[in-house]
Amino acid sequence: MEPLLKALGPRLDALLGPDRVITDPVRLRTYECDGLTNHRSTPGIVVLPDTAEEIAAIVRACADAGVPYVARGSGTGLSGGALPRADGVLIVTSRMRRILEIDVPGQRAVVEPGVINLDVTRAVRPYGYYFAPDPSSQQICSVGGNVAENSGGAHCLKYGFTAHHVLACEVVTPDGELVELAADGPGYDLLGVFVGAEGTLGITTKITVRLTRVPETVQTLLAAFDSIEAGGTAVSAIIGAGMVPAAIEMMDALSIEAAEAAVRCEYPPGAGAVLIVELDGPDAEVAAQFAEVERLCRDAGAFEIRIAADDAERALIWTGRKSAFAAVGRISPAYIVQDGVIPRTALPKVLARIDALSAESGVRVANVFHAGDGNLHPLVLFDDAEPGAAERAEEVSGAILDLCIEHGGSITGEHGVGVDKSRYMPRMFTDTDLDTMQMVRCGFDPAGLCNPGKVFPTPRLCGEVPGVRKGPHPYEGKADIF
Amino acid sequence: MRPLEALAKVCDDVRAGEPEEGVLGVQPALVAAPSSVAEAAEVMRVAAEQGLSVVPRGAETRLDWGTPPRGCDLLVDTHRLDRLVEHASGDLVATAEAGLPLETLAGLLAEKGQRLSLDVPLPGSTVGGTIASGAAGPLRTLFGTPRNLVIGLTVVRADGKIARSGGKVVKNVAGYDLGRLFSGSYGTLGLIVEATFRLHPVPAAAAWVTRRVSGPEEAHEAVQAVLHSPTAPSALEYIGPGTVAALLEGVPDGVAARAGQLVKLLGGDARVTEEAPDGWGLYPDGTTLIDVTAPPPSLRELIGLVDGLQHDVAMTWSGSGHGQIGLPSGMAAEEVAATLGALRDVLGRHKGGAVVRYAPQDVRSEIDPWGPVPALSLMRRVKDQFDPDHRLSPGRFVGGI
Amino acid sequence: MSAQDDLPKLLGDCVHCGFCLPTCPTYVLWGEEMDSPRGRIHLMQQHAEGAPLNAPMVQHFDQCLGCMACVTACPSGVQYDRLIETTRAEVEREHPRSLKERAIREAIFRLFPYRRRLRALRGPLRAYQKSGLDRLVRRSGVLERISPSVAAMERLAPPLGKAPRLPEFVAARGKRRATVGMLTGCVQGEFFPGVNAATARVLALEGCDVVIPGNQGCCGALSLHSGREDEARAFARRTVETFESADVIVVNSAGCGSAMKEYRALLADDPAWAARAEALSAKTRDLAEFLVELGPRAERRPLPVTLAYHDACHLSHAQGVRAQPRALLGGIPELTVMEIAEPDLCCGSAGTYNLLQPEAASALGDRKAVNVDATGAELLVAANPGCSMQIATALQRRGAHIAVAHTAQVLDASLRGLGRDALVGRTS
């Protein structure tokens, strides 16, 4: 173990007791990656705090020792945002999972960062409310992780992202201070930039979330098309008609095959694409719009339309979509989940280009996407036992991001930049853009100890840092990638 | 080279400031009105070289907000940056320059049946000023404030460099969201020059349901009834004294049905109108305007406090938990200060607060316009990074930032 | 092919998505990666890559309840059940355990699979003094661990009256629809004789001839789920022989049923037995599964009882039997079935787990008891004896007054028109 870490160990032991400080190498290795497994780095120490004060004390200890640290919730991130550092401390919030307050008249709840996204909804559902952000991993991802990543989900087309549903966060700053950041307080909207900063500005210890009224009606339709193009036409028609569905999701034949193998979702056989359209809201609104959606799907060439009659049927329709990523494991030994965004109107063009890329390279690509907002999730399949296959897949995956940038889109719609995409940031932003973003970073974390090496390809030097720095600069260490 | 000459080299609209152009009484030495983003960047670069303090100005609708600048060597006027750069209607996205008035923007977007879901409480206000002040109206209940609708932002930094964040797609988590950071930053971090917004379709139908309420309890009950109903209003307002109103938007049949539901739910004299009720979407009258963060459970006490004041005090409040209170000119500075203190006491218990937007000079000297600012030291450090020389709207913001 | 051979492939199926985490009882308790299925698979991977099987690893494998909730939750189809069984067998073969641990394990496996030894435990006062138990069992501390559960069971068992001794044959009432073999189980047979009697009556009332071989022994479930493969195989062979002539074998204990359905994998490498084991697995049915396949014929009489149905892990996760018991219970007039919050979460019984990991088990039991209590039900129904004992003990600790019964007993009470008092007593 590095000498700096070694010195830190006893202080952490004293803070938490040895049971919540993990130093055994075998145990440490189980934390070597989050949901993205191609970046791995065994943390130097893992700590399992139970309270905000403990996190603040841990951060102070790290700051004093000049040791970098990374926060992790459930470890389901898909960009390596919670990739630990061999020379650092991994602060795991999975034990901090109390729902502290449910304020129905105020339409808000206060939760600890380790609370599982879906558990918020489960807790407030009896009052007729839910927590709107619904990433596919909502049954396990933590609210703290949602805050770090500004998570979206299938329904963010209508309801927006985590940033729109977080009213305040208690945060441990890289100074080890506990401060409250609020969306509507006096001064800068630091909360606005903290949410989605991928854990590089501090660690949230308490989150006030906005609760959303459960809609009176939810109507879900599954439409099967011969081709992605036909499905895309339907999407354009729906948006063009001035509707804002809760969700519009599309899957292509390959991803349907995978989902079918995994969860037997029983999508119409022979479909080249399925479209899931969900409308929600007041009865009368939904009824009028739903008929229109159905008509538009038929006009676009849907050969089969299924309408969920009840919650069970709706769940079945969504099961296929929600398990699609992991389900691809059934049809391919390995795969890369890509996450890129394009203006929705560029969908047909970009999908055709992805097809061509796939054909040229011989690398299979399954497409799952949030069609309503142009958020693509191409799943690039490969066999990791085959020499060179991973590199070819990586190449195709990168080329897809280039396509997104070329069409005025983004390199990530919801998975975040993390370690995985920091190298693509200069393709989307100029040096000045990145430098400007990092001014915020320097304001929060001049020593660069808080989740260093994420988001930005090269760190901005923050100028004179007060206090004496010990040991190597935290950016010097690099994660092993294999 | 003197500042005027240096600026004139990069911008063709530079002149000396006039006394009536004062920012809360501080007269600008110079006024520059760049006509493009590149020109704006040049102006800012020259200002940096010359060490000029800079205050941005849009349509002056909120220039009297906040505290007076410590200095104003240069007023950067954005009125010539008034282009709608792009309206990608198929993607429900538009990019506009900072000086474009929101009403003009609305007219252009409406041609394609779309809108930016932000109210314009002060006519004439610009894209840039609205973002810099974080201003919004009743629609904030459903659509939020500029922070929720800006998806891409271009700013000119204190050193004159152009920086972009976000992009042209609604769903995007690449990099820090400076759009949210700049929303409500009062021109203290940089000059906003261009913004990309997410848009919404103009609803086919709209109706208001209005009910008279008497006293805090009835208002609270009416508001709670609507909030917890499934009618999904776009806006829910309390307009003091005594009116609760909800805006419903959607398809004609849907709006009619929901309005009927709300009338039944609210009872009393609740009625449906096609026109907004009086005072809808306007700031309350008065010479002192106080913005309050007041979550729904605090409404009862808030109204109780306002109604209990010696003067006729106007207020509005939105279902998202944010309101405005207008104090009349007749209120003495000490009375304003006492009222502000009382508001902060009450709202503080609900994790809310009160910020004075504008006030007469004699009042300003008696009060702390911002109230307690958590994380102020963090804010100072962010400011120091963006504007190390403290030249941008110096002193206009919290804690003298 | 045995799991050992295709271990790399089985491990490779895991994509590290974490969907298993919230379903894992130990992760729910401790929030530690090493005590989640994803973490344990990671540990197995480390071992497969050459890391020695050391004490920390074994600790986390031992702490797995084997509830298989993760198997249900996994979208990638990871066969964690096979992974953990293979790993456990390896742990038993390779990892030296402490003297105390060995004593407890030996005691458990000398006690539970043997009905005569179990019989010595019945009755709360007899537990400590019975000479029928061997010295190891008495000295290991296992009795101290099990006696509170036994005592709780004795208090909470439904007042159905004395359980009759089961004959080897019970004839169908009315026209015969099927002939079934019935497994009586070790723990079920000794601690819940009423459940077996009810099972036989219900089957007979639904038109089945019930064959109950008197020489049947332990099915091997406990051994199989604890990595004692050779012992499990021996039990399995004997059970295959005993029931070979039956068309269908009905099992009312979830753990036993799931083990018998696994015989095909357990004996797959044994040429002499593979086909016979396969056949037996194919004929094994849980009671509820069988009754739903058969369809109801006997008249259901009203039972105005509100009950909470608990999914035994080895029924819901291992056998996928969730709808059938609910359908059967729901078919009884005037009976209300309440769902228990966190239905997928194990109660902590998990075979021998509550004896080997008593602290974790009791934390899980308490959690389950809180959820059961919150339903407001007056009767808890479960289809596994271990679950019943575990939850009954936890309810007892909370001072909750709720009776415990098996699905078979509820059906029996309805079919025989015994009324609610037969199930919930006169206390409510």
TrEMBL record, chain B:
Keywords (A to Z) from UniProt: FAD, Flavoprotein
Alphabetized GO MF terms: catalytic activity; FAD binding
One protein family per Pfam: FAD_binding_4
Gene3D superfamilies per UniProt: 3.30.465.10
Residues in FAD-binding PCMH-type domain copies: 24-202
PANTHER family membership: D-LACTATE DEHYDROGENASE, GLYCOLATE OXIDASE SUBUNIT GLCE
Protein name, as recorded: FAD-binding oxidoreductase
Organism: Actinomadura montaniterrae
From TrEMBL, chain C:
Keywords from the UniProt entry: 4Fe-4S, Electron transport, Iron, Iron-sulfur, Metal-binding, Repeat, Transport
Organism: Actinomadura montaniterrae
Leading EC class: oxidoreductase
Designated name of the protein: Glycolate oxidase iron-sulfur subunit
PANTHER family xrefs: GLYCOLATE OXIDASE IRON-SULFUR SUBUNIT (PTHR32479:SF17)
Keyword hit for Transmembrane helix: no
Keyword Cytoplasm: no
Cofactor comment: Binds 2 [4Fe-4S] clusters.
Cofactor(s) listed in the protein's UniProt record: [4Fe-4S] cluster
Job of this protein: Component of a complex that catalyzes the oxidation of glycolate to glyoxylate.
The protein's Enzyme Commission number: 1.1.99.14
Catalytic activity: glycolate + A = glyoxylate + AH2; (R)-lactate + A = pyruvate + AH2
UniProt xrefs under InterPro entries: 4Fe4S_Fe-S-bd, 4Fe4S_Fe_S_CS, Cys_rich_dom, Glc_ox_4Fe-4S, Helical_ferredxn
Domain 4Fe-4S ferredoxin-type span(s) in chain numbering: 6-34, 54-78
Molecular function in Gene Ontology: 4 iron, 4 sulfur cluster binding; glycolate dehydrogenase activity; metal ion binding
